[in-house]
Amino acid sequence: MRYFVTVVLFIASMTGAKAKNNISVDYTEESELVSVIAHLAKVPGYIWPEEQAGVIDYFHQVDSTFAPYSNHPIMAFVADSLVKQGFGYHVPVAIALRLKLKNGKLHYNTDLEPDFNHYYRGITPQHEKKLIALLEDFYKKAHFHSFFKKNQPLYNACKQAMQQQLVDKIDLDWYKSFFGPINNISFHIYLGLLNGPGNYAIPQKTKDGSEIKNAFMGCADRNATGDIYYGEAYTLPVIIHEFNHSFCNPLNEEFWDDIKDKMIAFYNQNASFYAQQAYGDPLTVANEMFVEACVMRYLATHPVQFTQESIQKIKKIYQMQNASDEEIVAGYYETQINIREVYKKFFMIRDIMKALEEREANMVSYPTMRDFMPKYIEAINAYQEK
Question: Where would one find the signal peptide in this protein (predicted)?
Fold first, then answer.
């Protein structure tokens, strides 16, 4: 399985707390350590212009705090060896989510399947071993733990804002009704300020067969009073998107031979555009369209709440400054579709949504999404360029 980034451009504590719907929210030292290194080494996905960074004061703090360690060997290793092999976007935090810090040493979480979803496509075992050794050295010499403790109130504010403003509102029962049984599955959200607007789906599997659906979320802002803020209208769809990947990607991969020819032809119509969006192959685009169509079906039955702050942010990121507040709210659903259809060039999305509506109207005939895949395949192959 591939892992994908959702970037909103146009458009805590060490112990995770359980939200009302049993989605845990964490801000971990391991992921922040790796993210700081990725930022300092200018890894793709961890460097953002000020207007996109969200909490820019934190970026500045990282830069100033660790400036004396800019020549640490880990920087050259990451920039010269790892980035060339795909170390960027989801890969750094995917590595971090396998690790646990104890007394300055990094240990693997031995409960996890070591190579689930082709983990070692992002880094070789040899490079991972060297990276861990350099991380431990940087952690000690740069006094990273002191930095992390100093910023604990900020991380806690992120965790609390995410949980109260968004996570408590997510309807997990929708996943069971929409995709099928979710037994033996847990949902987790990890936070990272250095992600800026970047967000990643990083599924994991334990050795006892349990599945972990992880969404690694950036998307933090400060509101007018300087508090951490996650706007429901533009961030909640991203969380749903990241969780959807863990359900949609395996289905597209399982039935890829049935839609491959159509998707290759579709992809080739705008290959250079998709590549610029980090959608580097036809399967990636197929996954993204499937995921986004499912997001829209969630939004169709779960209207979001708007605050004045979220309305103003939507006007900015969607370049709709001339629209009234009422127009923003009333046109929200169609705007979301248009963003995906026009700006992302997911021209099939309405056809996929229509097929999904048919399934929702016939749940007895299609109790799981896998049962519906023949109809989904039919919709993909029947698509005609508009």
Answer: 1-19
**What's the confidence (pLDDT) of residue 354?**
97
pTM, two decimals, is 0.87
Residue 199 DSSP SS3 = strand
Residue ranges of E strands in 86-197: 99-102, 105-108, 185-191
Strands, DSSP E only, in the chain? Answer: 5-7, 17-18, 24-26, 99-102, 105-108, 185-191, 198-201, 204-205, 211-217, 221-222, 228-229
Whose CA is closest to 67, among 89, 45, 36, 92? 36
**Coil/strand/helix, residue 131:** helix
- pLDDT over 90, % of the chain: 79
Q: Three-state DSSP class for 213?
A: strand
- The span from the CA of 199 to the CA of 220, in Å, is 11
Residue boundaries of the structural domains of the chain: 5-195, 226-382
Q: Give the pLDDT mean for 151-167.
A: 96
- Residue-wise pLDDT tens digits, 315-332: 887 788 899 999 999 999
Closest C-alpha to 250, from 340, 180, 323 = 180
Q: Closest Cα partner for 276 from 265, 284, 266?
A: 284
Residue 204 φ then ψ, to 5°: -135, 165
Neighbours of 326 (CB within 10 A): 9
DSSP 364: T
Q: Name residue 5's beta-bridge partners.
A: 200
Q: How far apart are CA 348 and CA 74, in angstroms?
A: 43
Tell me what percent of the residues of the chain surpass a pLDDT of 70: 95
User: pLDDT-derived band of residue 1, with 50, 70 and 90 as boundaries?
Assistant: very low
CA dist 356 to 70, 175, 181, 350, 366, Å? 50, 14, 17, 10, 11
Q: What pLDDT is attached to residue 20?
A: 59
In residues, how long is the chain?
A: 386
Between CA 216 and CA 195 the distance in angstroms is: 9
Instruction: For residues 113-117, give the mean pLDDT.
Output: 85
Phi-psi region of 229 (alpha: psi -120 to 50; beta: other; left: phi over 0): beta
